[in-house]
Amino acid sequence: MAEKKILIVDYDTQSLESLAQLFRFHKFQILKATDGNSAYEKFKSEKPDLVILEAILPKLHGFDLAKKINQETKGKIPIIIVTGLYRGPQYRHEALTSLGASDYFEKPFDKQKLVTSALNLLNEEPEIQEKLPDSKSIMESLSRRIKSRGNKAFQKSK
């Protein structure tokens, strides 16, 4: 399977780099742009699988960029809007309904929630870090619970 591409757009290079760093452990190709026009050009030439963009962008506003990408792809490419300026449910609602955004985050945002949202939109499973219990221990635990409930029901009926 081909490596998936994420286009990240932010006018602030520090924010751009920190957004890119959120995906460093995932096997994605990260594309970057610092303004709406160059982001749109990269979008057309590179065909990313996901776009994460700041709402405030020079040359082409982030909301306009989101709407343009959404219309051209008929909503097939997910877009996550991240903003520090447009706060409140009215902006979120507008982004999700009128602009075609798939998700919307206000700065400062929960980094893990953003990554999880991106992975879900890309249909990628996050790598499980913890060891899951083996089937034998699960069955033993269920058996104990069933026996315990059976004893409680039996005692109540006395």
Order of helices and strands: EHEHEHEHEHH
Name the CATH class. Answer: Alpha Beta
Strand order of the largest sheet: 2-1-3-4-5
Distinct helical segment count: 6
Radius of gyration: 22 Å
Helix content: 40-55%
Task: State the separation between the terminal residues, measured CA to CA.
Answer: 63 Å
Extended strand count: 5
Q: What CATH architecture label applies?
A: 3-Layer(aba) Sandwich
Mean pLDDT: 87
CATH topology: Rossmann fold
Total count of domains: 1
What would you give as the CATH superfamily?
Response regulator
Poorly predicted runs: 126-130
Largest sheet: 5 strands, parallel
3D shape? elongated
Relative strand content: 15-25%
Summarize the structure in short.
By secondary structure, the chain is an alpha/beta fold. It is built from six helices and five strands, in the order E-H-E-H-E-H-E-H-E-H-H.
Explain the layout of strands and helices.
Blueprint: E1 4-9, H1 13-21, E2 28-33, H2 36-46, E3 50-54, H3 62-73, E4 79-83, H4 89-97, E5 103-106, H5 111-121, H6 135-157
Parallel strand pairs: 1-2, 1-3, 3-4, 4-5
